[in-house]
Amino acid sequence: MIRQIVIAGGGFGGFYAARAMERLTAARGARVTLVNDANFMLYTPLLAGTAGGTLDPRHVVVPLRSQLRRTELLIGSVTGADLESRRLLVRRVDGGRLELGYDQLLVALGSVSRTLPIPGLAEHATGLKSLSDATALRNQVLTCLDIAESLDDPVRRAEYLGFVFVGAGYAGLEGLAELQDFAAQAIELYPRCRAQGMRWVLVEAQARIIPEVPASLSAFAARELVGRGIEIETRTTLTSVTARGATLSSGEQIPARTVVWTAGVAPSPVVASLGLPLDDGGRIEVDAELRVNGNPGVWAVGDCAAVPDPARQGQACPPTAQHAIRQGRLAAANIAATLDHREPKAFRYRTAGVVAELAHNKAVAITLGVRWRGLSAWLVARTYHLLLMPGIGRKLRLLMDWNVTMLFGRDPSSPGRLGSATPLRFGG
Length: 428
Fold this sequence. Notes:
- The structure is a single chain.
- The chain has two domains: 3-113 and 265-339, FAD/NAD(P)-binding domain (3-Layer(bba) Sandwich), CATH 3.50.50.60; 121-263, FAD/NAD(P)-binding domain (3-Layer(bba) Sandwich).
- 32% of the residues lie in helices and 24% in strands.
- It is an alpha/beta fold.
């Protein structure tokens, strides 16, 4: 009898689980199906480079069909589950609905930007979580420069030359650093804008930026950003957003047509509709072996799962790519062990290091307890991403993009919004 293994989600956890399952389940009479809303895996740590014009958007995604040759790929969105009859509910891209039966289900649905009920946030702020977010931000910067260059009023021009990032974790820090460097090069083509200057502000609720790294590296990153004219507001929160600016908890009103929200992530909303046990943060409760509590045959990994962290007693693993990759591989091994009536193994991984690029060939990093900063950290970060990117073709594309940027600078062109088509117009 062919046993059905279904993976919900094609991010780091789901992709690496599928790749491992192709090898582990080949001789076990199992059929693996991966359900994802796109036909690629997004390499999220490089989104900032895409937004900043360093990387081609096509080069930070991994085509699932070319990398998973023995996995059935179903493009669609998970809408729910019938746990009693062991069926996953899916809506295909054409709107049709189907039910996938499974013997083993791995939930790896990832996360979305975590939002708060701040007035105007949903209407006027932009995230940095998807490929379309990255290209939209790049286009936004160029559009603001184009508009500002055409204005005679310096007060109105200041709105278009104001940029606010909220959240100084890895995503916010790297996103601001890349975009600011991109805009600093592009503004040389705009005489009026160059004469007036831009304003970039990084807002963080905690006492320092990138609180995940030691204070010495955080201080180095702050000095680098301040040295480029970027303002850092710590112990400060966003209280409201309008189309023309942002208001901070300090009472300051910042003229800005661009507000970027990078203050954390939350599990994908569909996780709540699966009928699985959730923790207070909305993540699926699993044991150390990645099994969902009280649901035989159901597993969960990645940002949507509260996997017990071996390094921090009583806490869940952080939502990082390196954890999702290891969890995906272990889930595949544990599912294979279950099919063979063997005991699954516990998740034992501890964070090996962190990297955060600051543009200008600078970064901060920690590898196996060694702290890096400046150019050496930047080389560590680039090497890490190059090694982690699946496929020799993708690695070469990254190298080409990085080298072209070093020689000729960032590309100051607007590629348009990904996924949008220009309507046909017929003339006589």
